[in-house]
Amino acid sequence: MRIAPGNLPIPQTEYEAKAIAFCRQWLSGQSMFTLHTSGSTGTPKPINLSRRQMRASAVLTGHTFGLAPGDHTLVCLNVDYIAGVMMLVRGLELGLVMTVVEPSSNPLRTLNPETEPFDFAAFVPLQMHTMLDHPGHSLPILNRMKAILVGGAAVDRTLAERLQTVSAPVFSTYGMTETVSHIAIRRINGPGRTEVFQALKGVEIGVDARNCLFITAAASDFATIQTNDVVDLIDSFHFRLLGRADSIINSGGVKIQPERVEDVIAELLAKESISARFFVAGVPDERLGQQVVLFLEGTEWPESCLDAIEKVVKHAIGPYAVPRKTVRVPFFFETPTGKIDRKAIVSAHP
């Protein structure tokens, strides 16, 4: 479905009808909108956002990436959640031509690389992996863009390496429903790639006593949003994301940040060109309180790979961080926004 400035088409599917319904609400001047968090870090909850907040976020994105009236954007994230809704708001506020497709693992599959000149798009990591599995079709579309955003979940090292084949600038985003989408970005391909996030213009950041990030911005209506994300605050504009305070594993009195363990494992898998999904979590243990457990998707994990994981984790972090148990799961549960539903998976495999 193509939406051009000043022209709302007749929807042909139930999903298109939802997108058009929001556009009509926005164009009517509606002042408040109720959205829901994804539920990836807790129970999904409704959040009320004002038109002023959402417009401020859209204008900031347009300024950051040089978007201009008439530019073409692909909307392929779920419009039931903030990431998809904000793609619609950006299109309406910035005068962009929007192509709306129902979310799928490969949103470019039905698009013609010769006739789809997109300037801007946002994807989740799973979509990027799937598109890069078909480079002959996807790269001609991706490489024409001014900017590509990847958000909703962490960009692991395997995906980061695969993204080096994309010549258009690709950015990992940091944000949440409460901040009305992203408030910081980092380049993840090309010569400017970095592990450090940079806050967008006008966004103020700091940390609390736990070294957890807090944010104040026009998109938050200048309210301070306190997160549970542990960061290395480099200065008042830059930070390195370390993990979540509420995911720390306390194993025998030793505190382990699972994201650090995952990063070490991901580096090994990237060197071996293995793109299978995994995560690390703490599971209750009578003796240790919690034990480090490695959850693997699929069954094609050779023992040699698991032995190598044990060695690299022990060398890089220490023996206390080595997973004491491995759980193989045929398919990972996902949230509606495409994130791995860690809590559901751990609950299903105690």
TrEMBL record:
Molecular functions per Gene Ontology: medium-chain fatty acid-CoA ligase activity
InterPro entries associated with the record: AMP-bd_C, AMP-bd_C_sf, AMP-dep_synth/lig_dom, ANL_N_sf
Domain AMP-dependent synthetase/ligase: 32-193
Residue ranges annotated for the AMP-binding enzyme C-terminal domain, each copy included: 278-339
Gene3D superfamilies found in the cross-reference section: 3.30.300.30, N-terminal domain of ligase-like
Signal peptide boundaries: none
Domain of life, per lineage: Bacteria
A biological process from GO: fatty acid metabolic process
Family membership: Belongs to the ATP-dependent AMP-binding enzyme family.
Protein name: O-succinylbenzoic acid--CoA ligase
Species this protein is from: Larkinella punicea
Lineage: Bacteria, Pseudomonadati, Bacteroidota, Cytophagia, Cytophagales
